[in-house]
């Protein structure tokens, strides 16, 4: 058996797999808000932070780890686990003093993780990915490197508020003494991996690329980015490594306390998005994952470290080797819900039957699909922009509005993923809106490739379990064939007669976007 853990914003999840039967044998979660209410973080972070700060208590993640293993030990026989891997919400950083490595190596089972490790924290809280407080630090790092294009070329992203480098700089500026006492900086992923392995283990390329510190071409820390971020930073980070590298045996703490076998090994942990790429079976170039959640995300494997010249997309390491993109479209379901509610509709108006009534107008009416501020491309909301027939522009025909919104969303996605230069051969669709046949068909038509719907609720934890099995020598593509399967009857083919109209619409959409910058 192989165990995958995912420490996400709101919960810690375990997925246990048996590669021989191709089955998930156990799935369990600890919900930070519901199970650990004394951290007063109902959604996994401390509410009401000043100036855009969003922090979480790293002790909550440790207590969740003890609780999860206590539950797992009851639910399953942990002595059968051969290897453990994991993932964490990306960008979150944990600050520890020089005693951490000793403490983590000397954990005793008569006490818990929180009591034994809390004295090593040099910063009580950890900034997480929702934090937007580092605008000044991003500007300083960008200026030191000579501009955004250079930061992006080296690290795969412009300097971004939530990324760990700018967050480290903010800590250094606000509390230089505590920064100086910090001997180790971990990400959420490498922090938990270190606890599992009983020693500090490296950050992997997948999660490391979310720091604005990793040089993608060299796959090592970038000395200029380190220098622009904070002094003596190199000494606080271990050299980064590939996710599937084994770090050694599991800490005796977990053997003695929860019955894991002494021979069980621990692989590096990665970020939740890289782990999801694995769990969605999309680690080879040509496969794309589109997740239609609150926001929409587009992620895909890439052979080389190519970066977005416009700086909207991010590049992370692919746990299977090579790289991946991650592009986030903030409007996603938020915009679909806004239009639905504005027109007094329900989701049936977005379904296939409803959309066939407007098929003859495909690609002719254009909408900039932003009902709130957008990040890809950066666009302040000033009201919907419509261009097309008089009936469409009058806003009275609800069906035309719905088609134009969805077309606008996926044309925007196609346009802003072109920089990757990878031909999309197959799309794996997931997230709440993916069950809608009309929306799924439109994705197939606009990208002109088949769309498979995959219903995996814990794709990051599953991906981590697959990484654990791959690190132990199992063949990853074969594992993905067994575990990442499309729901029967859930594959949709593109309508080839829409290829030409949507090529033209892509050009027109870009022109409309450019005219409204
Ligand atoms: P999250 O990003 O919060 O994990 P989910 O992937 O669970 O989001 O997706 C939730 C979203 O799915 C809801 O906000 C809702 O707008 C959308 N959704 C649910 N059912 C449908 C449907 N039938 N058609 C379109 N959208 C839907
Ligand atoms: C990615 C990002 C989030 C976090 C939390 O850049 O900020 O997806 O990984 O899931």
Question: How would you characterize this protein structure?
Answer:
The protein is an alpha+beta fold. It is 37% helix and 19% strand. It contains 21 helices and 23 strands. The strands form seven sheets. Strands 1, 2, 3, 5, 11, 12 and 13 form a seven-stranded mixed beta sheet that branches. A hairpin with a 4-residue loop joins strand 2 and strand 3 (23-31). Helix 13 crosses helix 19 (459-471), helix 17 (398-415) crosses helix 18 (437-447) and helix 17 crosses helix 21 (499-515). The longest helix is centred in the first third of the chain and has 18 residues, at 58-75. The chain is globular, with a radius of gyration of 23 Å. The termini are far apart. The relative contact order is 0.12. The model has no long low-confidence stretch (mean pLDDT 96). It binds adenosine-5'-diphosphate and D-xylulose.
Q: What's the story with the biggest beta sheet? A: 7 strands, mixed
Overall pLDDT: 96
Shape call = globular
- In terms of structural class, how would the helical and strand content be classed? alpha+beta
- Count the helices. How many? 21
Overall helicity: 25-40%
Report the oligomer: single chain
Give the percentage of residues in beta strands.
Answer: 15-25%
Number of strands: 23
The Cα radius of gyration reads 23 Å
Distinct small molecules? adenosine-5'-diphosphate, D-xylulose
First-last Cα distance: 53 Å
What are the low-pLDDT stretches, counting only 5+ consecutive residues below 50?
none
Walk me through the topology:
Layout: E1 2-7, E2 11-18, E3 23-31, H1 32-35, E4 55-56, H2 58-75, E5 83-88, E6 93-97, H3 100-105, H4 113-117, E7 126-127, H5 135-145, H6 148-155, H7 164-174, H8 176-181, E8 182-187, H9 188-197, H10 205-208, E9 214-215, E10 220-221, H11 223-229, E11 246-249, H12 252-258, E12 265-267, E13 270-271, H13 272-279, E14 287-292, E15 296-302, E16 314-317, E17 323-329, H14 332-342, H15 352-356, E18 366-368, E19 374-375, E20 378-379, E21 385-387, H16 390-393, H17 398-415, E22 426-430, H18 437-447, E23 451-453, H19 459-471, H20 476-483, H21 499-515
Parallel strand pairs: 1-5, 5-12, 5-13, 14-22, 22-23
Antiparallel strand pairs: 1-2, 2-3, 4-7, 6-8, 9-10, 11-12, 14-15, 15-17, 16-17, 18-21, 19-20
Bound molecules: adenosine-5'-diphosphate and D-xylulose.
């Amino acid at each position: 058996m192989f165990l995958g853990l995912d420490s996400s914003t709101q919960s810690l999840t375990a997925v246990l797999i048996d590669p021989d039967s191709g089955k998930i044998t156990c799935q369990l979660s600890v919900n930070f808000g519901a199970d650990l209410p004394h951290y007063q973080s109902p959604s996994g972070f401390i509410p009401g932070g000043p100036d855009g700060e969003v922090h979480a208590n790293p002790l909550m993640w440790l207590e969740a780890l003890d609780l999860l293993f206590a539950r797992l030990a009851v639910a399953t026989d942990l002595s059968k686990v051969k290897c453990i891997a994991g993932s964490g919400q990306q960008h979150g950083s944990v600050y520890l003093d020089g005693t951490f490595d000793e403490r983590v190596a000397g954990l005793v089972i008569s006490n818990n993780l929180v009591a034994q490790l809390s004295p090593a924290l040099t910063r009580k809280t950890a900034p997480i990915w929702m934090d937007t407080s580092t605008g000044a630090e991003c500007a300083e790092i960008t200026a030191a490197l000579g501009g955004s294009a250079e930061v992006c070329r080296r690290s795969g992203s412009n300097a971004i508020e939530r990324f760990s480098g700018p967050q480290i700089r903010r800590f250094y500026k606000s509390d230089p003494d505590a920064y100086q006492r910090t001997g180790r900086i971990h990400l959420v992923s490498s922090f938990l991996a270190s606890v599992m392995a009983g020693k500090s283990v490296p950050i992997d390329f997948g999660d490391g690329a979310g720091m604005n510190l990793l040089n993608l071409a060299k796959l090592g820390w970038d000395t200029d980015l380190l220098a622009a971020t904070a002094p003596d930073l190199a000494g606080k980070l271990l050299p980064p490594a590939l996710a599937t590298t084994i770090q050694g045996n599991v800490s005796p703490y977990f053997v003695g306390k929860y019955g894991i076998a002494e021979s069980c090994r621990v692989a590096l942990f990665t970020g939740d998005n890289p782990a999801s790429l694995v769990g969605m079976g999309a680690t080879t170039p040509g496969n794309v994952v589109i997740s239609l959640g609150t926001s929409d995300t587009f992620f895909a494997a890439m052979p080389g470290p190519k970066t977005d010249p416009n700086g909207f997309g991010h590049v992370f390491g692919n746990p299977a080797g090579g790289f991946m993109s991650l592009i986030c479209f903030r409007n996603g379901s938020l915009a679909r819900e806004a239009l639905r509610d504005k027109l007094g509709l329900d989701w049936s108006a977005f379904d296939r039957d409803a959309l066939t009534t407007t098929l003859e107008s495909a690609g002719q009416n254009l909408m900039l699909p932003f009902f709130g501020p957008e990040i890809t491309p950066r666009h302040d909301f000033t009201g919907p922009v419509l261009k097309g027939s008089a009936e469409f522009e009058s806003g009275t025909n609800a069906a035309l509005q719905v088609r134009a919104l969805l077309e606008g969303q996926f044309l925007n996605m196609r346009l802003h993923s072109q920089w990757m230069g990878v031909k999309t051969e197959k799309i794996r669709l997931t997230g709440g809106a993916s069950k809608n046949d009309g929306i799924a068909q439109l994705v197939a038509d606009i990208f002109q490739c088949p769309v498979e719907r995959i219903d995996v609720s814990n794709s990051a934890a599953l991906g981590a379990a697959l990484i654990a099995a791959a690190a132990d020598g199992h063949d990853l593509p074969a594992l993905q064939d067994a575990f990442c399967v499309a729901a029967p009857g859930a594959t949709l083919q593109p309508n080839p007669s829409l290829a030409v109209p949507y090529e033209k619409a892509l050009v027109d959409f870009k022109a409309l976007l450019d005219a409204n910058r």
